[in-house]
Alpha-galactosidase
Amino acid sequence: MASIPLILLLSLYALYAAMAARISPLFLDLERPASWLRTPFDTSNYGKLQLNNGLALTPQMGWNSWNFFGCNINEKVIKETADALISTGLADLGYKYVNIDDCWSSLTRNTKGELEPDPKTFPSGIKALADYVHEKGLKLGIYSDAGAFTCQVRPGSLYHENDDAQLFALWGVDYLKYDNCFNLGIKPEERYPPMRDALNSTGRTIFYSLCEWGVDDPALWAGKVGNSWRTTDDITDSWESMTTIADLNDKWASYAGPGGWNDPDMLEVGNGGMTYMEYRGHFSIWALMKAPLLMGCDVRKMTAKTFEILSNEEVIAVNQDPLGVQGRKVSVGGNNDCSQFHMLGNFRFGLVLSLKTGLLLLYGTVVLKLSRLQPNGKC
Ligand SMILES: *[C@@H]1O[C@H](CO)[C@@H](O)[C@H](O)[C@H]1NC(C)=O
């Protein structure tokens, strides 16, 4: 049943793209398409809303420690993960950020009031780790919190923005994930910009990833503050959590674009809570939504199937398409919404892009993969 509208939509898209291409020199002089056609692909806000630090022209790719390791991290794990990103070839596919999440720091600031790496788990310090990662052509990410404490009750950076940003820059950090725990009830719109300014004034280019869990609709204001903003609560490793989050994130599609992205949280692919087909759906939907592709599994020990999903170059190409349009869910069918059709691209540029890079065909491939999703065999 769901396949009829799917085929219809696909044909319409192909037809429209073909027409647009044929008349493209004229098309610019014509009236703009009706708003129902235009809005899903509106790129008129690009550049106006985004943070001007030159980063995030496409969604960030890499790895983060939290989804698999939680608090059980140490410098050996981080180094071995960097090694694995290189040896598996994942770094060459774009996975460049090695991001340390919560629990890297000591429980208290030192006598000078500075953040300090936990001496038991990170005895060599963050600077040494950054040097190690940089030598491999990778980038190092760190974590702090726009509150009094981090979620695991390490010192937070609220009212320490300048000192902490200077320290991160001194260490050679390239990325900051900034969480929302113990926020003293102060609005995120007040707590997040000071860290943007502090990072900027270090002079070091640092990716700024907002993590206020979508509580104050950050898509509406965070474009000028960060390079990405979480739109939802934390993901868990289940089909229900993943699809719920995807639906919540879908709503903000028109606010994403080069420089700033909606972040529906990190990938769970390879962590064991979903089936192979479900993980394929997870990865495809994240790619289509122009979500950050931050792997959350133990890349040192990933299975061949996990690697196959995460290294799918066609899907990665959709995510990293420089046009930067977030795909929208336009049709849903089947039990548990398991047939989904996501649409992306700009009608006017769809075919031009595809001629250059073959992307139209690739979009088609992804759509077919999605439409064949069979979670729990219930479709
Ligand atoms: C700081 O902000 C200015 C103004 O937006 C921008 O031009 C500059 O590139 C930023 N610098 C860094 C290091 O992010």
User: Anything to note?
Assistant: The two ends are 11 Å apart (CA to CA). The pocket of 2-acetamido-2-deoxy-beta-D-glucopyranose is lined by residues 52-53, 200, 203, 205 (CB under 6 Å). DSSP finds 15 helices and ten strands in the chain. The first strand starts at residue 61 and ends at 64.
